Each structure stands twice: as structure tokens, then as C-alpha cells.
Amino acid sequence: MNSTWISEPISKWLPIRKYRGYLPGLPDLYVGRLPEYIVGPRLYPWKIWYIETPEEADALEKSLDKPIPMRGRFLDFKSGPDAACSRLNLETDYGPFTIALYAPDEADTGWPWITVTRFPTVKLAGDMAHELGRGVYGHDIDMDEITAIKRVKGMRRAAAPAGALISICTP
Length: 171
Known about the structure:
The protein has one domain (4-162). It is built from 5 helices and 8 strands. The chain has helices at residues 10-13, 36-39, 54-64, 122-125, 145-159, and strands at residues 16-19, 28-33, 46-51, 70-71, 74-75, 98-102, 113-118, 137-142.
């Protein structure tokens, strides 16, 4: 396999779509589809960035116009594009626990529906914070609307006994 792609800007080999946060306080998502020659045919191909400000969007886009840093033989997203928008803010209160469904644009066939969960604070995320985007964001991927809606409805049913109210909002 020809590996000249590694010296190209990330944006040349990583197709990216923007999913706009449609409720106040929700991040925009930048979603990249990793090529099969990187992840193989069975692995999770989606790379997701949670963008909270226009400045972060600009910084991420600039970093995607550069080649990916390498750590040995591995792609180093952490010191590359992730550095533009991955900081944890231990002081931020993001508001109530939120579940939001992000839909791909109608023209973007083959792109996922993304259910994002957001904890109110990094502290409330507890031990899970190190596994979450920015310490507060989690996501689930579905490849069609019906499955995504079923997922959110199931989350709503599971949360009801605890007194949580979850409504399904779409753009």
C-alpha cells in the first residue's frame, strides 16, 4: 500500500462532516470517517470532535490542513487535531444532563446518526470522565434514523424511574 497520504494534510484523506449543535449549549460535532486502510474493515471508522466555540472550530480546521503527527508508527491525533478542542474545563457547569440526537444532512448518505449525552460537570461524570470527550460528552452511533430514535426512546424509558425527563428534540 502506498503511504504517501501520511504526508498530506489530514483534510485530504479524512472526509469530514459538520453536525451543528441545534440547542443552546450543545457543541457542534466534526465527524471524520477514517479510511479502511487505516482502521480495517471491522473497526469503528468514526472520529468525533466536540466543538464548543468558533475559535475551536477555526483551530481544528487549521490543524486538519496539516499532516497528522506520528508517534512511532501510530497516528497521533492527540497532539494533532485533538489538541485544538479537547481541553477539560473542571469549572464549567454545562447545565442539566442532556441527550441530543444529531442527524446527518440528507445528502450525506452513509454518515451516522449520533446520540450525544452530556454530563452537567466533569465532576459528576466521575470515573467515566477520562473516557468521555472533554470529560462530559459521550456518544453512540447508529447508521439509520429508526435505530437512532429507538436508542433515544430506550434511554428515556431507562431514565424515567430515576425521575429524569428526557425529550427527543431534533433540528
